[in-house]
Amino acid sequence: MNMLIIADDLSGAADCAVGFASLGWPTLVMLDARPTQAQVQVIAVDTDSRRLDAAQAAQRSVAAFHALARPCQRLYKKIDSTLRGNWAAEVAALHPLAGLALVAPAFPEMGRTVRDGQVRVHGAPLESTDTWRLEHADAPADMARMLGDAGLRVEHCALEQLRQSAGQLPRLIQSAQERGVQALIFDAETPEDLRLLARETAQPELRAFWVGSGGLARQIRDVPPPSSTPAPSKAEPAPSQLATVVLAGSLSAVADRQCEELQRRSDILPLSLPPAVLRQGSDHPAWPEWQAQVGALLEQGLDLLLRIGRDEQPDPAEGALLSANLAALLKPHFHRVGGLVATGGETARAMLGAVGIDGLQLVGEIEAGSVLSHPLAPSGGHRPGIVTKAGAFGSPEALYRAWRHLHDAQQSPS
Molecular function (GO) terms listed (predicted)? Predict the structure, then answer.
């Protein structure tokens, strides 16, 4: 069985795919939806569509499906566990191609659960969180309404119904399809709930596709791994004089706490790039000075935490521009980077795209949501270890642990 994972940002694609890589499945993350002859069982593609309008995002998902679909393949539409982006439009566009959408965004290990069809974050309704309010103001975080507005007929499978339906879910799904249901939302509060859903819906003959975060992806265990697969390749340690760089593009409070913990527990040198400089990029008078400073520090082998600074009223719509120019600032000096941690999907994609990396071979996880990889086909033989992490995910120590792992690799080359 093959898996195709379609995600709307890079950190999400990697986070979702790493569960398969950790089981020994040959796994590839692609930054572009181009046909590939790579001999892998799991392909995750980043459509980079979170900031597009709904119609463009839907079109990219469909294009990715057509470009990468293979025989005997199941589809997993990776969505953000806090419902960011154009996920409903993308699911609606994929429905005619892949069948009934099995919608389960819960990620209990990260505090995201679903009860009564509504996402909760550490027990609080999603719409009460800063993450939701920052991008959606007072709009309700109602999955059924969002899917309905995208043109789908929706039903809800309550938690009690899920837990009492062991062995019966395929029949329940078939009945829903016969009633014309196009998307079925599942409650889930524990990993066991998601494991039950994954086990009951893994039959290859089922005309349905999964819609979830990294939580459900980790529970798709009943499909046996390949009988003979090569062990995941290990990231090649870089020479010890190279530096480890942490790029923090996310403006979330979670990322702020992780940066603070990284600084408290390490000797990493923090640099906060003014948004005014990043907005103008190379056109800003201070750009050459900042770029030279970054280059000089890396030449000394110093580890850096490069952060996007804050305005009084940060605008999430500027994320792509600020991330692109943060990547452009580092690009001339990337050959001095032996390890890269990129938090925030836009930031990771911008950096990899800037230096010509269009695919990642996954190695494993440092912790849930922090995915370790190395470039699939690097130019010039430069193969830094790369950790991608969603900005609003992870423990307070997540960035420190990622930095520590890559930093230690620089100090112990083999």
Answer: ATP binding; kinase activity
Domain that holds residue 310: 243-411
Phi, psi of 144 (to 5 degrees): -60, -40
Calpha distance 259→248 (Å, rounded): 8
Burial-class residue 360 by CB neighbours within 10 Å (0-12, 13-18, 19+).
buried
Element (H, E) at 256: helix 253-265
264 with 321: CB under 8 angstroms?
A: no
- How far apart (Å, rounded) are the C-alpha atoms in residues 293 and 313? 27
In sequence order, what are the beta bridge partners of 142? none
Strand order in the sheet with 112-115: 112-115, 118-121, 124-125
Q: What contacts 178, CB < 8 A, 6 or more positions away?
A: none
Instruction: Tell how strand 73-78 and strand 208-212 pair up.
Output: parallel
Tokens standing for residue 30? 């692609």
pTM listed for this prediction: 0.78
Strand, helix or coil for residue 204: coil
Please, what are the averages of pLDDT over each run of 10 residues along the chain (414 residues)? Answer: 91 88 87 85 94 96 94 92 95 96 96 96 93 83 96 97 88 93 97 94 87 92 45 41 89 87 94 91 94 92 90 73 93 94 90 91 88 78 87 87 91 58
Q: Which residues pair with 184 in a beta bridge?
A: 102, 155
CB environment 361-371: b (16+ within 10 A), e (fewer): bbbebbbbbbb
349: part of which helix (H) or strand (E)? Answer: helix 345-354
Task: Tell me how far apart the alpha carbons of residues 290 and 277 are, in angstroms, rounded to a whole number.
Answer: 9
Which CATH number belongs to the domain containing residue 201 in this structure?
3.40.50.10840
Q: How many domains does the chain have?
A: 2
Contact at 8 Å (CB) between 364 and 21?
A: yes
